[in-house]
Design a protein that fits this description.
The complex is a heterodimer of chains A (about 240) and B (about 775). Chain A is α/β, with parallel strands linked by helices and about 240 residues long. Chain A contains seven helices and ten strands. Chain A is globular, with a radius of gyration of 17 Å. In chain A, strands 6-7-8-3-9-10 form a six-stranded mixed beta sheet, sandwiched between helices. In chain A, strands 2-1-4-5 form a four-stranded antiparallel beta sheet, covered by helices on one side. In chain A, strand 7, helix 6 and strand 8 form a beta-alpha-beta unit. Chain A has one domain: P-loop containing nucleotide triphosphate hydrolases (Rossmann fold), CATH 3.40.50. In chain A, about 50% of the residues are buried. Chain A is about 35% helix and about 25% strand. The radius of gyration of chain B is 34 Å and the shape is elongated. Classes of the chains: A alpha/beta (about 240), B alpha+beta (about 775). The complex binds adenosine-5'-triphosphate (ATP) and magnesium ion. Adenosine-5'-triphosphate binds next to strand 2 and helix 1 of chain A. Chain A: This is Putative ABC transport system ATP-binding protein.
Chain lengths: ~240, ~775
């Protein structure tokens, strides 16, 4: 699904990234490469810096020191507007609590992502509807987020993240708020996406999600990479 | 930008309550601003406006018909900017069935023209002989004895004229008008000319203009003139008393509106932080986020502002028309600059107050924004809440009291709105009370029950014959005795009014000489004492100011050939600067044979006034009842405005609280859902949320009331001073304890009213729904 970066090339490259929040150190010299087509799971105790890592990669926040290069863009060289444009085109994000816009219908939430890149509203809806069909939620397209189940909401969020064919899909505890069955559906969805080439960086506490979806698991402790292992996926 | 619009629009559509609150607050605020500015702008020159509207005459001149022809006058008038006339003019006796009077009658073919465009406010203009149009102020009170449309009056001996209309001339160019043909039949004695000049701002310019239009006329042709500057000085009296009060209120309304708009708008933006984070994560640029937020508040703000301008114009116009129609200027509206200023200024103000939080949103790091919206910073709150939890208050109350500490910024803004709301209400109530007390006392409204008119002069034999004005048939002393002995009378004061001058001053004075129960006619002594011997007078504050005098000083008053030295022994509460009060012993020094013309009577409770008047008139048919004092439309206008603005401010303040509670409960719906899930009843939740705001209302009341009282104490005397009146200190003591309690209650009611609906709504959302939604 990614454009010009073929399998094997580094989509994400973090070099000695350090992030401090006042006194506390959230990331402490993290260096990491993620290659196109990989599915990387980040695990670790609460407060170990996993969400902070995603924020760095998505350009939602800037490191205190070190460099973040995503899809060839050195985020340190981009201004706020540049970062926004970068996020629009290169990043898809899904969150534990979905973060859909309550004011917009499910379809419009998804279409919005394409409209941001200048696509007309009708084109954007058309593409969104295709994604809805692929994700099996076409019947819920005119529903507002508050009337959707958690699993449905997360699938809408996934659709929104995929709208602009991102270089990398970032997921922070995507199944954290879901029951087992809904969680499994989302897991399957992510796995399918990865199998058709979508690069994936996901944060999870869920061992099962990690082993099922990820080809590599990175362990975080106190803002540092404490270990790393490659996995044979179970499915 | 294609993505910005749908997001703004959706935000407006789905956030109905906030959109509505912004819309309504902006609507009410704009209305207040337009009313206040409209009154402010109009009250600075109602006379000038009316004069401009009517193209009032700047110089009104009467010429001797035997010395100058109409052609000569027209010819000489070429130097004027605009002219009306020549019109035939005569001073005629009139008999309407009321007291004998004389009228200045002018023959005029139509009420329009280039100068002195008359406002025919009732009936029509005279179009054939036998018809007459009276010059009457539309706001003059109409009581028994005032001429009515269609009734007849007899003028100049035996000419019966039918009243076909009432018109009003701000220039006071005549008492009544007839057609030119009718005028000719009545044999005019003089010719009237009305002029406007290119320059007429000062007396010197007017004199120059007058010299221009009289140049070359035979000497002695000009009999008399009247300058509009003198009229303007006279007209400024009453309104000027109230203009300062209106101004204060206008500015206060403006300040409160600004604060509340800012509060509501920044509340809306602050509540949207999480939303902002999501937009940023999606790739909205900082500027796009800002535009979404400005757009979200601008849509209701623009709609509310437009509605407010319309509503404000309607209200202000109706207030202004009522206030200033005594200048004959109907339909005085809000000046266009006020509308333009409101239409541009209010949305700009709203945008500006939204800009600060919007800029904050703009610069907020997206990662923080996503986490900021949902959970209020609780560091400070925890201590307070723990302390409250340890008190003996019911848990729902102590939890509620802790709520405002979770969002100290928002709480402070809400508190400020409530404080200013209570301040304005306190100030307004005090202002209204002081004003009514003052005006009632100063104009002596309702002080006497019946006023009887006994004819002007009359020591000689009363005039006889048909058409002679009715005058008292009995002597002055007999009339007084009659009025006293008629059943029901409680007090009788007799008075005679004599035009006099004060030596060294150029203005005419009206001196009323009293005898009998003059202490009962409603004048209040605020300094010195009542007269108790010959050669004593009592005057007003304005009189003292205009002449630079003080109680205790001695002045010389002149009437025709007599002059008398009098001492100012007291100061009474009334507005007029040219009215002087004295006693009968002093009149004896000036005009010993004068009879009383006016009798002011108070009756015992339960006495029927009509019965009393008929009983008196059965004995002396020449005694006529006349109108008493009338409160003046200004007080009514001021009070209406005060009530209106107070209601609006109260509503807006309540909406401010409402908005805060909506935001708070929305943010805390998870906490609320959690509290309910552990067994809190909906009623307890309502109590908890309402308590949080009631505490705010009580604090607002405690802070706002003293502020309002201070404002009242400082502003009212200062403004009275500017208006050359004195408000005695007892009129400032308008806050009895019961009223203060009521005002505190007002703060609490404002807060509770604003909080109740959203609190109940929050209490009744089902837990599952709340928890499901997060
Ligand atoms: N905006 C912030 N301000 C201050 N400190 C922060 C902020 N965001 C994160 N931190 C701190 O950085 C550290 C790492 O936080 P992070 O959210 O990355 O942890 P996490 O591994 O995602 O934890 P969890 O598994 O609980 O989500 C924590 O100590 C946290 O307190
Ligand atoms: Mg996390």
């Amino acid at each position: 699904m990614t454009e010009d970066v073929g399998n094997g090339q580094a989509v994400v490259q973090l070099t000695a990234v350090r992030k401090e929040y006042g006194e506390s150190v959230a990331l402490d010299g993290v260096s990491l490469e993620i290659h196109a087509g990989e599915a990387v799971a980040v695990m670790g105790p609460s407060g170990s810096g996993k969400s902070t890592l995603l924020s760095m990669v998505a350009g939602l926040d800037r490191p205190t020191s070190g460099s973040v290069v995503v899809h060839g863009d050195d985020l340190g060289t981009l201004d706020e507007k540049g970062l926004a444009l970068f996020r629009r085109r290169r990043i898809g994000m899904i969150f534990q609590f979905f973060n859909l816009l309550d004011d917009l219908s499910a379809l419009d939430n998804v279409a919005l992502a394409a409209q941001l890149t200048g696509t007309s509203a009708s084109q954007a809806r058309k593409r969104a509807l295709e994604l809805f069909e692929e994700l099996g939620i076409a019947g819920r397209r005119n529903t507002y987020p508050s009337q959707l189940s958690g699993g449905e909401r997360q699938r809408v969020a996934v659709a929104r993240a995929l709208m602009n064919r991102p270089a990398i899909l970032l997921a922070d505890e995507p199944t954290g708020a879901l029951d087992t069955k809904a969680g499994e559906q989302v897991m399957d969805l992510l796995l399918d996406l990865n199998q058709i080439g979508q690069t994936l960086l996901l944060v999870t506490h869920d061992q099962q999600l990690a082993t099922r979806c990820a080809s590599r698991v990175i362990e975080f402790v106190d803002g540092q990479i404490a270990g790393e292992r490659s996995l044979e996926r179970t499915s | 930008m294609s993505a910005v619009w749908p997001v703004s629009r959706a935000a407006v559509r789905r956030r109905r309550i906030q959109t509505l609150v912004i819309g309504v607050v902006v609507l009410l605020s704009t209305t207040m601003i337009v009313v206040a500015l409209g009154l402010l702008a109009a009250s600075s020159g109602p006379f000038d406006q009316a004069y401009t509207k009517q193209h009032g005459a700047q110089l009104l001149a009467s010429y001797d018909r035997t010395k100058v022809t109409d052609a000569q006058l027209t010819d000489a008038a070429r130097s004027a900017a605009a002219v009306a006339g020549p019109f035939g003019q005569a001073t005629v006796d009139v008999n309407t069935g009321g007291p004998a009077t004389s009228l200045v009658l002018v023959g005029r073919a139509d009420p329009a023209g280039t100068v002195d465009r008359l406002n025919v406010w009732k009936g029509r203009w005279a179009d054939k002989p036998g018809e007459i149009v009276l010059n009457r102020n539309p706001t003059d009170s109409t009581g028994r004895g005032t001429p009515t449309l269609g009734s007849a009056m007899t003028v100049a001996g035996n000419n019966k004229l039918t009243i076909v209309g009432f018109a009003y001339s701000v220039s006071q160019s005549a008492d009544a008008w007839v057609t030119p043909a009718q005028m000719t039949a009545l044999k005019p004695t003089s010719t009237q000319m009305l002029y406007r000049f290119a320059h007429a701002a000062t007396n010197a310019e007017l004199t120059a203009g007058q010299n221009g239009v009289t140049a070359g006329l035979p000497s002695g042709a000009l009999i008399g003139t009247q300058s509009y500057l003198a009229l303007r000085a006279a007209a400024a009296g009453e309104p000027n008393t109230f203009v300062p009060f209106l101004m204060v209120f206008g500015w206060l309304g403006l300040a409160v509106a600004v604060l509340i708009v800012a509060n509501v708008v920044s509340g809306a933006v602050v509540a949207g932080f999480k939303h902002i984070g999501v937009l940023k994560a999606l790739g909205f640029t900082p500027s796009q986020v800002m535009v979404v937020y400005l757009g979200m508040v601008s849509i209701p703000a623009v709609v509310g502002c437009a509605g407010g301008v319309v509503l404000g114009n309607i209200l202000a116009t109706s207030l202004l028309t009522r206030a200033f129609e005594n200048y004959g200027a109907e339909g005085i509206g809000v000046p266009i600059w006020v509308d333009v200023a409101a239409l541009l200024g209010v949305p700009a103000l709203v945008a500006l107050s939204a800009l600060v939080p919007a800029l904050r949103a703009r610069s907020l790091s997206a990662a923080q924004a996503i986490s900021a919206g949902s959970a209020p910073q609780s560091g400070r709150a925890l201590g307070v809440q723990r302390w409250l939890g340890g008190t003996r208050l019911p848990r729902s109350v102590s939890l509620g009291l802790g709520l405002p500490f979770a969002r100290p910024g928002r709480t402070a803004l809400t508190l400020a709105a409530v404080v200013l709301g209570v301040t304005s209400v306190t100030f307004a109530v005090g202002l209204g009370k002081s004003l009514t007390t003052y005006q009632t006392a100063a104009s002596r409204v309702g002080a006497v029950d019946v006023t009887m008119f006994g004819g002007l002069k009359g020591n000689g034999p009363p005039p006889q014959g048909e058409g002679a004005p009715p005058v008292a048939k009995l002597t002055d002393a007999q009339d007084e005795a009659l009025l006293r002995s008629t059943p029901g009378a409680s007090s009788v004061a007799a008075s005679a009014e004599v035009p006099m001058r004060m030596v060294g001053a150029s203005t005419d004075l009206r001196v009323s000489f009293y005898r009998g129960d003059f202490q009962q006619v409603g004048f209040r002594i605020i300094e010195g004492k009542w007269f108790d011997g010959p050669g004593q007078v009592v005057v007003s504050e304005r009189f003292l100011r205009q002449h630079g005098l003080a109680v205790g000083d001695t002045v010389v008053l002149q009437a025709q050939d007599k002059s008398v030295r009098v001492q100012i022994v007291g100061k009474a509460l009334y507005n007029s600067g040219d009215e002087v009060l004295s006693n009968w012993q002093t009149l004896a020094l000036v005009a010993p044979n004068q009879r009383a013309s006016i009798y002011e009577i108070t009756v015992k409770p339960g006495t029927d006034l009509d019965t009393y008047v008929s009983a008196v008139q059965a004995k002396d048919s020449g005694l006529l009842e006349t109108d008493g004092q009338d409160a003046g439309s200004f007080v009514t206008i001021v009070l209406a405005t005060v009530v209106l603005l107070t209601l609006m401010l109260g509503t807006v303040a309540a909406l401010g609280v409402f908005n805060t509670v909506v935001l708070n409960t929305r943010e805390r719906r998870r906490d609320l859902g959690m509290l309910k899930s552990i067994g809190m009843t909906p009623a307890q939740v309502t109590v908890m949320v309402v308590t949080s705001m009631v505490a705010l209302g009580a604090i607002g009341g405690l802070l706002g009331i003293p502020l309002g009282m201070i404002a009242h104490r400082v502003v009212v005397p200062a403004m009275a001073n500017g208006a050359q009146v004195e408000i005695p200190s007892f009129m400032l003591n308008v806050y009895p304890a019961s009223l203060l309690a009521l005002l505190i209650l007002a703060g609490i009611v404002i807060a509770a009213a604003g909080a109740y609906v959203p609190a109940r709504a929050a209490a009744h959302t089902t837990i599952a729904k709340v928890l499901h939604n997060e």
